[in-house]
Design a protein that fits this description.
Elements (H helix, E strand, L loop, with lengths): L1 H15 L4 E9 L2 E9 L6 H12 L2 E2 L4 E2 L4 E7 L3 H8 L2 H4 L15 E8 L8 H19 L5 E14 L2 E14 L5 H17 L10 E4 L9 H4 L2 E2 L28 H18 L5 E8 L8 E5 L8 H11 L4 H8 L32 H9 L2
Parallel strand pairs: 2-5, 8-9
Antiparallel strand pairs: 1-2, 1-10, 3-4, 6-11, 7-8, 11-12
Helix pairs in contact: 1-2, 5-6, 8-10, 9-11
Length: 380
């Protein structure tokens, strides 16, 4: 919820001011939403209304749920971006040293390292456990919203355990779904069979159709109290769920609520594209791409490609081609991925990677023409 509120505010700013600077944090608890951060923009969005609309859109529209977007308290505390940060983003070190390259203009919004990962577990080149978990979560929300399962409430989590052999997923071991529900509903008589019929089986990949796997549904015995009433929520509290579900390393920076000059987000998207392109090009079965920045400097201080021994060419050779094809300066990757648009709320649930839509989002999942260029450079 907090991520979706922060990204809703980001989208509202970018819709009016594509060059707005946003670092928006949200906290939600019983009956209260707090929106804070640093925003420098010519736009004048109604932060309180945006927060309420986001809460309601998730399904929190009744006091019994612990928070009601129509009536909850909303506190807004927004400052402008620090001028000490802004001067390095507005004019990177390279331009202050008289570079005339336009891609040297925008400095990284912070220091840090970012990782992107891809593998051939699925057609979306995502690790199977997190890919299936996201599919289950999205299906769970779908059947709740449609009324196919009438007793569900908005809060829910999914988890999947997969058995691997020689680096490949071979068996579904466990599916865990914890979902908020109305009182006086039986887990064994009502919730479990409904989830198996309407959520688990429709999402089950064909390769696991004959597997005997364990199913856990609300293992504590009840999940009536949920959402921010049961657990205070903060932007960025699910940083491992957002990318690869623990299959790859993570630099520690959250995504939501950040405009694309914040490389925590934009560069993480760009290295996901690199890793996915390497695998899509047939140059590796697994790939992790890493990049690191100094605040206020356009050019990365580090770029690394690791194929974990699955590459068809040496990693150091592959890295040379990656550097030639993918310009990782913030201005360049923002342009390549077209990130100055209001496309971010949709990323804040069901994962930032391994998804596409029909509305111009998830551009970092596009692998062509880059995969063809990589193959040509590698001579394969």
């Amino acid at each position: 919820m907090a991520d979706q509120i922060s990204d809703s505010i980001l989208d509202a700013v970018l819709a009016e001011d594509p060059h707005g600077r946003v670092a928006c944090e949200t906290m939600v608890t019983t009956g209260l939403c707090v929106v804070a951060g640093e925003i420098s923009t010519t736009a004048r969005p109604d932060f309180s209304r945006i927060a309420r609309d986001a809460i309601c859109s998730i399904g929190y529209t009744h006091g019994d749920y612990g928070i009601d977007g129509k009536t909850c308290g909303v506190i807004v505390s927004i400052d402008e971006q620090s001028p000490d940060i802004a001067m390095g983003v507005d004019k990177a070190t390279e331009q202050r040293a008289d570079s005339t390259d336009p891609y040297d203009e925008v400095g990284a919004g912070d220091q840090g390292m970012m990782f992107g990962y891809a593998c051939d577990d699925t057609a979306d080149l995502m690790p199977m456990p997190i890919w299936l978990s996201h599919k289950l979560s999205a299906k769970l929300a779908e059947v709740r919203r449609s009324g196919a399962i009438s007793f569900l409430r908005p809060d829910a989590k999914t988890q999947v355990s997969i058995e691997y052999e020689n680096g490949k997923p071979v068996r579904l071991d466990t599916v865990l779904i914890s979902t908020q529900h109305n009182p006086d509903v039986s887990i064994e008589k009502d919730i479990r069979p409904a989830l198996i019929e309407h959520v688990i089986m429709p999402c089950l990949p064909e390769q696991f159709a004959d597997d005997k796997f364990e199913i856990f549904v609300n293992p504590t015995g009840a999940f009536v109290l949920g959402g921010p009433h049961a657990d205070c929520g903060l932007t960025g509290r699910k940083i491992i769920v957002d990318p690869s579900g623990g299959m790859a390393r993570h630099g520690g920076g959250a995504f939501s609520g950040k405009d694309p000059t914040k490389v925590d987000r934009s560069a993480a998207y760009a290295v996901r594209q690199i890793a996915k392109t390497v695998v899509a090009a047939g140059l590796a079965k697994r790939c992790e791409a890493q990049v690191a920045y100094a605040i206020g400097v356009a050019r990365p201080v580090s770029i690394l490609v690791d194929t974990f021994g699955t590459g068809v060419i040496a990693d150091d050779e592959l890295e040379v081609y990656v550097r030639d094809i993918f310009d990782m300066r913030p201005a360049a990757l923002i342009e390549r991925l077209d990130l100055r648009r209001p496309i971010f709320k949709r990323t804040a649930a069901y994962g930032h990677f391994g998804r596409t839509d029909n509305d111009g989002g998830f551009t970092w999942e596009i692998t062509e023409p880059y995969a063809s260029k990589l193959r040509a450079a590698a001579g394969v």
